[in-house]
């Protein structure tokens, strides 16, 4: 972690010495592995939904994906990743914030942020600091994990985390992308079997990068990334009309 913090400080220092002159509007993406860019090394089938997000926009707006695997609101702040985003933010820039998967990790004190206390306070900090820079925060509820009971009925695992995001969006008048609600509806529509195509349910030998296959009901396949991004775009058209103007027809 120390090496990561040093790298981030060096990047911030470089930005001071060599400031960017690009004045285009930016959308910063802040979150965890469900959003993050995934390398296509050896045919890696995993994708984050923010990885395909730029494909939905016209030229003239930049999208910077700062989401990273395994991050919670707590670790994203303590590692200096939020500070690096905040430093680059200018008036009129947007920041889309989606956390929750790793905040619930009680077994990991570096990540754990209880929903109604630390998680809430961390999101408030991001909202207020983005606004202090003239930025426009947009909150997103966490996408669901693929979970079905023995009767094939979908059930949720996120507890109070989506509720807290909805409450803060209303309290602070922040645009809300309710991806938790949308992905719940999607998985119920697809059902237990068909929903496998949205996640990393990989057979042995199907991908060189995963010779033994994989049974991952949290992270997205390319198909899943595009489906979730479709849902995010639907929400943006409804909740953030100014940003929707940049979307392709």
Number of helices: 9
Number of strands: 8
Element-by-element helix/strand order: HEEHEHHEHEHEHEEHH
> What does the oligomeric state look like here?
single chain
What count of structural domains? 1
Structural class: alpha/beta
Q: Which CATH top level class fits?
A: Alpha Beta
What is the helix content?
40-55%
What is the CATH H-level superfamily? SGNH hydrolase
Overall pLDDT score: 91
Identify low-pLDDT runs. 12-22
Radius of gyration: 18 Å
At CATH level 2, the architecture is 3-Layer(aba) Sandwich
Largest sheet report? 5 strands, parallel
% residues in beta strands:
15-25%
What coarse outline follows from CA principal-axis ratios? globular
Widest β-sheet, arrangement of strands: 3-1-4-5-6
**First-last Cα distance:** 42 Å
Q: Which fold name corresponds to the CATH topology?
A: Rossmann fold
Describe the protein.
The protein is an alpha/beta fold and 249 residues long. The protein has a single domain, classed as SGNH hydrolase (Rossmann fold). Helices cover 41% and strands 15% of the residues. The chain is built from 9 helices and 8 strands. The strands form 2 sheets. A 5-stranded parallel beta sheet has the order 3-1-4-5-6. A 3-stranded antiparallel beta sheet has the order 2-8-7. Strand 4, helix 5 and strand 5 form a beta-alpha-beta unit. Helix 1 runs parallel beside helix 4 and helix 5 packs parallel to helix 6. The protein is globular and about 50 Å long. About 4% of the residues have low confidence.
């Amino acid at each position: 972690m120390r090496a990561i913090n040093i790298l981030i400080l060096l990047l911030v220092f470089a930005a001071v010495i060599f400031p960017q002159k690009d004045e285009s509007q930016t959308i910063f993406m802040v979150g965890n592995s469900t959003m993050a860019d995934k390398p296509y090394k050896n045919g890696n089938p995993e994708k984050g939904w923010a990885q395909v997000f730029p494909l939905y926009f016209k030229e003239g707006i930049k999208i910077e994906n700062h989401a990273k695997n395994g991050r919670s609101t707590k670790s994203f702040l303590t590692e200096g990743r939020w500070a690096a985003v905040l430093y680059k933010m200018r008036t009129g820039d947007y920041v889309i914030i989606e956390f929750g998967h790793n905040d619930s990790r009680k077994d990991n004190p570096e990540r754990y942020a209880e929903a109604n206390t630390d998680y809430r306070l961390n999101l408030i900090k991001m909202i207020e600091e983005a606004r202090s820079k003239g930025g426009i925060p947009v909150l997103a509820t966490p996408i669901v994990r693929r979970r079905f009971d023995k009767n094939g009925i979908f059930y949720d695992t996120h507890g109070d985390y989506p509720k807290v995001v909805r409450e803060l969006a209303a309290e602070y008048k922040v645009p809300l992308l309710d991806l938790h609600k949308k992905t719940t509806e999607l998985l119920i529509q697809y059902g237990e079997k068909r929903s496998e195509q949205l996640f990393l349910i990989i057979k042995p030998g199907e991908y060189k990068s995963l010779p033994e296959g994989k049974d991952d009901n949290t992270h997205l396949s390319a198909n899943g990334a595009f489906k979730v991004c479709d849902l995010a775009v639907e929400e943006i058209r409804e909740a953030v009309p100014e940003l929707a103007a940049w979307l392709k027809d």
